[in-house]
Design brief:
Blueprint: H1 6-17, E1 21-26, E2 31-36, H2 43-64, E3 71-75, E4 80-87, E5 90-96, H3 102-118, H4 148-153
Antiparallel strand pairs: 1-2, 1-5, 3-4, 4-5
């Protein structure tokens, strides 16, 4: 049985979530795959925003001695962006408007992230040509190193050091 391509999975996620757009990107800002109704001209700005947020979360985690956030969201007046870590340095972002149940939407994004995390693409994974980091490359085994423990940790509540 042939494994689906990452691009086809991202397209399916966008359709099933009824999202305005879904992006799979590296923390460097390089977009691996995208699907939806967002103008291509604004994708580099969105990638830069998400990349900066992921990097800031990692830096704050190091500063405070806590684990970097695995999920975050931006809440605008008419829309939201929910971002979930797939593995170290790879993120799934979903843009939506007027979701009846935001909690369910976020859970679905995390579950789709798990599906993407299990993919070990047969074809070489190449970015869609949009990058805020010139010269960045993507390994053909992008999701090969994610473990079950990492997937399980996506659904655990963060605990502060020194507390049980």
């Amino acid at each position: 049985m042939q494994q689906p391509s990452i691009a086809s999975v991202v397209q399916k996620i966008s359709h099933e979530l009824n999202a305005k757009a879904v992006l799979l990107l590296r923390e460097s800002g390089e977009i691996i795959a995208c699907s939806g109704w967002v103008e291509e001209s604004i994708l580099p700005n969105l990638a830069a925003l998400l990349s900066a947020a992921a990097s800031a979360g990692r830096s704050l985690g190091q500063l405070t001695g806590l684990e970097a956030p695995k999920h975050f969201h931006f809440d605008f007046e008419a829309s939201q962006i929910y971002v979930s870590s797939i593995n170290d340095g790879t993120w799934l972002a979903a843009f939506h408007e007027d979701v009846a149940n935001p909690g369910l939407f976020r859970l679905q994004v995390r579950r789709y992230g798990q599906i993407l995390g299990r993919l070990s693409p047969q074809e070489e994974v190449t970015p869609v040509g949009i990058s805020v980091t010139p010269g960045a490359t993507i390994s053909p085994t992008l999701f090969a190193n994610i473990t079950d423990d990492e997937i399980d940790s996506l659904f655990k509540k963060p605990q502060l050091k020194g507390r049980s």
